[in-house]
Each structure stands twice: as structure tokens, then as C-alpha cells.
Amino acid sequence: MRKETGHFDVIIVGGGASGLFAALLTAMKAQERKQACRILILEKEKKLARKLLASGNGRCNLGNRQVTIDDYETSERGKLEQMLARVPDSFPAMFFKNLGIEIKEDEAGRLYPLSEEAAAVHASLISALGAYHIEWELETEIVEIEQRQKDYRLKDEHGVCRTCKSVLFSPGSQASPRLGGNSSASRLAQHWSLDYFPERPALTALVLCDQRFSKQASGARFKGEARLRSGRTFSGEFLFSNLGLSGIVAMDISTILGRKAGTFQKLKGEEFFLFQEVEPIVLNFVPALNKEGVYRFLLSKYDLLKEKNPELLSASLIPRKIAQAISNRRLKEAKMKSYDELGDRAFREELKRLSGLFCSYELSLSGLRSFDFAQIARGGIALSALRSDMSLHRRRGFFLAGESLDVAGRCGGYNLHFALASAYLAAGGIADYLWPPGRP
Ligand SMILES: Cc1cc2nc3c(=O)[nH]c(=O)nc-3n(C[C@H](O)[C@H](O)[C@H](O)COP(=O)(O)OP(=O)(O)OC[C@H]3O[C@@H](n4cnc5c(N)ncnc54)[C@H](O)[C@@H]3O)c2cc1C
Predict the structure, then answer these.
(1) Hey, which residues does 12 pair with through a beta bridge?
(2) 154: CA distance to ligand 1 center in Å?
(3) Among residues 323, 358, 373, which one ends one of the domains?
(4) pLDDT on residue 4
(5) Which helix (H) or strand (E) holds 193?
(6) pLDDT at residue 368 greater than cutoff 60
(7) Higher model confidence: residue 19 or residue 439?
(8) From atom 35 of ligand 1, which residue's Cα is the shortest distance away?
(9) 3 has pLDDT over 80
(10) CA of 46 to the centre of ligand 1 (A)
């Protein structure tokens, strides 16, 4: 038998960042328009907004001073550009200030709460929900949504139904399942035949084909450059791990290459997303010098130390583990046991070759680490399924926001920016739907 509990103006499916932002913004709109509004947030986890709490390594990089379309990957750039343009630049800082959250900016324009504590942002949001009389229920997963003539009926996993005039659907993506990620968006898209781009892990680690290389270099950090097949280059800090490359730049690259990730393969309990074909990545470990500069440096050190040991000679140029992995691979290719086999002249030639490799080293990427290690997903419900007020074309009163949409931001606060920007647009849409302008 179906159990019914309460009728609401708005039900929000998913109490993550975008759900909480949209709930508050809708309540603020209701207050502005002097309307009573009953809002309920339904969240399947034991806690609201777990990803927000974990964001920025607990520091919560909640936005960026400068946001452009180039900070995002989406299949519908024009549509996203229009959406972003409709959010006033001053809005994010004003929103957080109104909630009593003081913001500071770092040298890269990243916005953080002054205390650099995600927990403080979380606590402010929760107390604001209370102040606006927004209700929420935890450990409640919506498994079925039915559109009726004048309202929507939402059923949870225990068969309990709630009805409402409008829905904000903000269940996030499949990324980071331990923090709430699941496939609610893809299930809805399938159920209602919405255009949907398959989700792929993004802001995750890159997996190298040559596992021996990554194991040898594991733990080494470097500030360098990476060039992709497309010619696009990235610079910043990288970190080698047992499986490949991680760090902020590698994570940004994963979002771009996610488009090429197709099948997945299960290895030792983890699902790796494999590229359709191996992707080359060319690394420059010493961007501060060119090949000739590196060669001159190695030669002068060799003249001084007289040691045929590339790791020792390059010690202050690149991390020792990386030099070791490169020179070991080089020895293997040249079928040599040690550089001592080379005479003085041949070793100098070898140093020239190694200088080239330190500045331009090609490795092959096999794929991406799984959703378990991804901060976000690329793909999701197509933006073309939405009107400009974030409601579905074919279903009046049904709005979407956040990461369930086909929008993936790079590192730097762009994903929480999109959570807030889409919530802002959706809250405006909900308000106009519930209380059309001009009607008393
Ligand atoms: C470790 C980590 C660090 C990050 N750091 C940053 C950062 O510093 N800056 C930044 O901009 N971004 C960061 N992100 C990304 C950012 O947190 C997300 O993009 C953002 O939280 C997305 O908000 P959302 O509301 O769309 O989705 P989510 O925050 O994922 O919220 C969706 C919620 O819906 C719930 N849900 C799903 N399905 C249902 C259902 N059927 N019924 C009920 N509830 C459901 C989920 O449990 C979840 O709580 C980080 C992410 C992670 C994982």
C-alpha cells in the first residue's frame, strides 16, 4: 500500500551543494514576493552535502573570481555560455556574504571562506535552511517520479510518496560514490527519454601504459608541462603515482580526455576507463630551461664529477626518481646494462639525448581511474533538454541543477560555481512558475 506524506510547493531531490543553494534561493525569492512556500529537501545519505564538506581538501574552494566558458567541458558550449552569462558576476560573493560567509581570494582568483573550512560553509548553509524554514529528510532515496496533471509524485525506496507542485532534481553525478555519487541522473534520462551524454570519471588520475615507469617514478612531484595529441599544453604541478599521473593538472587533463574513454575494465576490484586508443602525453620536466640549457648543465656537472650517472648529474634539475625511471628505460632500449659501458665521447652523446628526453618525454596513457577516485563526472543530462529557466522542455515545473547536467568544470572552484549558478537560474525559474510575475 502507498503511504502519502505531505504536499509541498517544491521538493528538491538531492541535498548536495546545488540542492541546498537552490532551496535557499527559492526561499529568498518567496520572501521577496511575499509568498508562503513549503520546501522539502530529500537526501539519500545520512548527512546533507557530503561533497561540499570534502571540497578543496576540506578548505572548500567555492568559486573563482573569473569564470569563462573555457573553464568547462560540455557538449553544448553555446548553451552553457548563455547560462553563465545570465548569472551576475557579483552574485556568488553576495550570496555567501548574505549567509554570513566571508570570502577571500588567492593569487589564482580561487575563492575560499576566510577560515578555509568547508565545515564552516556547511554549518552556515544548514543554519540558513533552518532560518528559512526549509525542511529536509535524510536517508531518503527517491526511486520513482511521476508527473500527474497538476503536480508531481515522488516515491522513495520504502514506497513512501510525497507530492509537490514543482521539483528541483539535483542528484549530482556518479563520481565519488562514498560521498553520495550515484546514477540517479542516468536513470531519470532513461526513464523519460532525455538526451544524456554517458558519464565518465573526471578530475581523476591518468593511468599510464608503462606501469614499470610509473612504479619507479611513484611519489615524485614536478612542476612541468604536458602536451596532448591535440597540441593543447598544460603547465603546473604533477605527481607520479603507482598507476600513473595525478595532481591538479593531470586531473584537469582527465576531464578533457574523458571524452575518449569508452569501455571499462575491472582490475583488482577497481574499474578503469580505457581510452579507445592509447593517448600520447609529452612531458617537459624542466620548462625553465631548453634542451641546450639542460645539456650544458649536465656536461658541466659531468666535467666536474666525472661520474657516468645521469641521476646524479641531473639531481638539482629534475626529481631523482624521474631521472632514474627515464635513464633505466633508456638503458633498456639501448640494450645496455649500465652507462659505464660507454666511453667518454659516447656518454657525452648520451647526455645530449637525455637532455632532449628531460624536455620532451613521451609516455602513453591507457585510461582513467574510476568514479571512486573522481571528484566529478563529465557527461550527464544534455543542456538542450532544458529551457532557459532550467526546466525540462517537456515537463513544466520540473527543474534541474548541478552536476547531473553535462557540465564539467576544471579545478579551481568552477564546479561549485556551476552548482550555484545553475541553482540561481533554477530558483528564478521555480519562482516564476509558482508565482508568475504580474499575477497577484
Ligand atoms: C573530494 C572532492 C573535492 C571537491 N573539491 C571541490 C572544490 O574545491 N571546488 C569545487 O568547485 N568543486 C569541488 N568538488 C566538486 C563539487 O563538490 C561538486 O561539483 C558539487 O558538490 C556538485 O554539487 P551537486 O549538488 O550537483 O551534487 P552533489 O554534491 O553530489 O549532491 C547530490 C546529492 O544528491 C544525493 N542523491 C543522489 N540521488 C538521490 C536520490 N535519488 N534521492 C535522494 N538523494 C539523492 C546524493 O547523495 C548527494 O548528496 C569536489 C568534489 C569532491 C568529491
Answers:
(1) 41, 168
(2) 21
(3) 373
(4) 61
(5) none
(6) yes
(7) 19
(8) 14
(9) no
(10) 14
